[in-house]
Amino acid sequence: MKRLSLFISLFAIVMALVGCSDNSPKAVAEKSMQCIIDKDFEGYTELLYIEPKEGQDIENQKAMIASMLKSKYESTVKKKGAVKSYEVLGEDIAEDGEKAVVTMKVVYDNGKVDENESIKLRKDKDGKWKLDAGK
């Protein structure tokens, strides 16, 4: 009986740790939303799936993207308001395990609510989940 209790306890701990993994679509989507709230455009850029362009330094690409994100953020805030909070509603991982969609509820500081914000993700060559900025 003690072994069964020990096994159940260990299983629960392992499942909790797996659920808290920072390499899950849900965790990456949550980090991206927190970066938006914190106006951490460089941090957000680190979460993006970026294919290096031939002849260009990846760090320069990231810096350009972060600059564009900041500009886009300012124009979006004027239209929608700033993100106040978010809640993950669902996580759908494709059968091949390479792509995922996380659905969120996003609340803006002006009271508007988006009940169905979808964030697309994909795995990079190292198996880490990244935001899919592709179409």
Ordered list of secondary-structure elements with their pairings:
Elements: H1 2-19, H2 25-38, H3 41-46, H4 58-80, E1 83-93, E2 99-108, E3 113-123, E4 129-131
Antiparallel strand pairs: 1-2, 2-3, 3-4
Can you put this structure into words, describing what you see?
With 135 residues, this protein is α+β, with helices and mostly antiparallel strands. 45% of the residues lie in helices and 26% in strands. The chain has 4 helices and 4 strands. The protein has helices spanning 2-19, 25-38, 41-46, 58-80; strands at 83-93, 99-108, 113-123, 129-131. A 4-stranded antiparallel β-sheet has the order 1-2-3-4, covered by helices on one side. The longest helix has 23 residues, at 58-80.
Please give a quick description of this structure.
By secondary structure, the protein is an alpha+beta fold. It is built from 4 helices and 4 strands; from the N terminus they run ααααββββ.
Order of helices and strands: HHHHEEEE
Q: What is the topology, as strand order, of the major beta sheet?
A: 1-2-3-4
Quaternary arrangement of the chains shown?
Answer: single chain
Identify the overall geometry: flat
Tally of extended strands?
4
Keywords:
single chain; 135 residues; alpha+beta; four-stranded antiparallel β-sheet; 4 strands; 26% strand
